[in-house]
Write a structure and sequence with these properties.
disordered N terminus; alpha+beta; 10 strands; two-stranded antiparallel ribbon; four-stranded mixed sheet; 596 residues
């Protein structure tokens, strides 16, 4: 993986190269500079160029430059309330409300870099450079096809049909280009991924770990086609919009689209390169530990497309951003009450606050993934920092408060937990929901002082199995769907599901929500299933109090009540992003999305 992240000097020179005009080649250049000719005549510099494209893939683990997409949907709550506008559908063509305002520009910039390489390759300008090393040229070309498809997949997921640009615009070119139809965009992305799969190796090894593979191309294609077959792109979203072909399909056979999604997922499965991580736990306790480990170890047989980090770069600072304030961490990104409530009971039944037994002890006998993913009141995690250990030496999460009797004052006093907003330890950093994130955070790391080496798993095998199962459900193939869903559940230590028809679809959607929690899937799933009106109703949490008993002792089991932390609201225009006004001003052929 060193080649992906350990080349700052070359990267700076390449950025300069990309941003500057070509100088007169007859001039003598300083030895510290690289010209365009240098780059395309040196395989090492070409590889560094491709590395820079990899670095433009979103890093949602970096609280400075990226952000978990769960905060833009009913999955996580941001303690600074900075996502209020977005989660109330207050997007405009001038303001994406906490989202990266340059999303369109950023993605097309990355597409341009891909096109620059592919143009050279198509013109056979790289053949001499690789001196007959076809395998190396094929691998690099396959990577670039994959990356271009990846960026376009992000574009169409946010905007619908977008301009398909395969050439290189110069400074003197007119930037007038129409949006292509959604159907044409999906066809183009799929073809790029087919090209990538044909060129890429099944596995990468050594310094090439982290580069994409044939399996990554097949798996991404399964995601692309699954999204394309979903309701958002096959049902009317804005009936009055005069260009529905930009938002989805206006003709064709939807059953064929589901079949294509199923076939794509099956191709990735049948490649035989991946398996579920520790798929047969001997107990629920073992399942919990396996699930914790799966997201913090460097490599598993489930990994398909992964980004690695070195702790000293602090490019993965999720431990600092999302950890509890009682550990001197920020408590910024916390699981929502809705997510926590959707973890089933251990027997596979739904959790409900209206069930007296559930409400009395809501954290008892839940899906093992709950214990692997969520830090809740009373959960044992890790030792506190030295200056906090005098207050709590064991390392148990405290998101509640205690009513205690003060005999000297002859009155009840409230003692807040260390991880609450009234904590004696950095209360300004505490979350509001009563929960903190455990998934994706390495307990061995002190987030105050170090970044994590925990990889960012963009695509893993569990998603591919779920993609396949969803396509099967929509094709009426319930038995086949349950086979693959239950593989996921067995790994999690959960009983099989048995439903059919619409009930199976509902059960599957909850299974996907839980299995892929905090992995940047929920944001897109809510939209493609067109269930945003149910998802954007507000963020919930819990109020936790250890009550004072009549004998003036304090209860050891808390009273826990659900609360509303922040309101949300939904407008259907938010199913698609607006194209920023600055982009439309540059290109008057662009058609704005409905509602903006």
């Amino acid at each position: 993986m060193r080649k992906l992240i350990n080349f700052p000097k070359i990267l700076l020179l390449l950025v300069f190269l990309m941003a500057s005009c070509q100088e007169d080649l007859l001039e003598t250049k300083p030895l510290s500079e690289f010209t365009e000719i240098d780059t395309w005549n040196d395989p090492a510099l070409i590889e560094a160029f491709i590395n820079s494209i990899y670095l433009s893939v979103d890093n949602s683990f970096n609280g400075g430059d990226g952000v978990l997409k769960g905060q833009f949907v009913d999955e996580m709550h941001d303690q600074w309330y900075s996502f209020f506008e977005f989660n109330n559908s207050l997007l405009t063509a001038d303001d994406l409300a906490s989202w990266n305002h340059e999303e369109w520009t950023k993605l097309y910039k990355s597409v341009r870099y891909c096109n620059l390489f592919l143009e050279k390759e198509a013109q056979q300008q790289l053949d001499a450079t690789f001196s007959g090393d076809k395998a190396l040229k094929d691998r690099m070309t396959g990577e670039v096809y994959f990356l271009r498809a990846y960026f376009y997949q992000q574009l169409v997921s946010l905007y619908g049909g977008v301009p398909i640009v395969t050439g290189i615009f110069g400074l003197n070119d007119a930037f007038q280009v129409k949006r292509d139809t959604y159907a044409d965009c999906i066809k183009f992305i799929s073809e790029d991924l087919d090209k990538a799969a044909a060129l890429l190796p099944v596995a990468q090894t050594g310094d090439n770990l982290g580069r994409v593979t044939k399996g990554a191309a097949l798996a991404l294609k399964s995601r692309v086609l699954l999204y394309a077959a979903s309701d958002l792109h096959n049902k009317p979203v804005a009936p009055a919009f005069s260009n529905p072909e930009l938002l989805g399909y206006t003709d064709g056979d939807r059953t064929a689209r589901w079949q294509a999604a199923k076939d794509a997922a099956k191709a990735a499965i049948d490649l035989g390169a991946y398996n579920l991580y520790k798929p047969e736990p001997a107990s629920k306790e073992e399942a919990v530990q396996n699930l914790i480990d799966m997201f913090i170890v460097k490599q598993t047989q489930e990994d398909i497309f992964v980004r690695f980090f070195r702790p000293e770069t602090r490019q993965n600072n999720l431990a600092q951003v999302a950890g509890p304030n009682g550990y001197h961490l920020y408590g910024e990104d916390t699981p929502s009450g809705q997510l926590v409530d959707d973890f089933e009971m251990a027997d596979g039944t739904r959790f409900s606050w209206t069930n007296p037994a559930h409400a009395a002890q809501p954290y008892k006998d839940r899906d093992p993934r709950f214990y692997a993913d969520i830090l809740y009141d009373g959960a044992k995690w890790k030792a506190r920092p030295p200056d906090v250990q005098a207050l709590e030496p064991v390392g148990v999460i405290q998101t509640g408060s205690w009513e205690k009797w003060d005999a000297a004052k002859n009155e009840m006093v409230i003692v807040p937990g260390l991880d609450t907003r009234n904590s004696p330890t950095e209360n300004f950093n505490a979350g509001y929901t009563g929960y903190y994130l455990r998934k994706l955070i390495d307990p061995a790391i002190d987030g105050q002082y170090s970044g994590q080496s925990v990889p960012l798993r963009y695509i893993r095998f569990g998603e591919v199995l779920l993609n396949y199962a969803e396509a099967c459900i929509e094709l009426g193939q319930d038995v086949e769907a349950k086979k693959y869903i239950n593989m996921i559940r067995k790994r999690a230590g959960m009983p099989d599901i048995t439903e059919t028809g619409a009930a199976l679809r509902t059960r599957y959607r909850n299974e996907r929500r839980i299995e892929l929690a905090i992995e940047d899937h929920r944001f897109y799933d809510v939209r493609r299933w067109m269930i945003a009106a149910q998802a954007y109703t507000g963020f919930t949490g819990v109020n936790i109090v250890y009550k004072l008993n009549p004998d003036k002792t304090t209860a050891t089991i808390p009273t826990i009540k659900p609360i509303v932390v922040q309101k949300s609201a939904w407008l259907d225009k938010a199913y698609f992003f607006p194209i920023m006004r600055t982009e439309i001003n540059k290109n008057n052929l662009l058609v704005q999305n409905p509602g903006y």
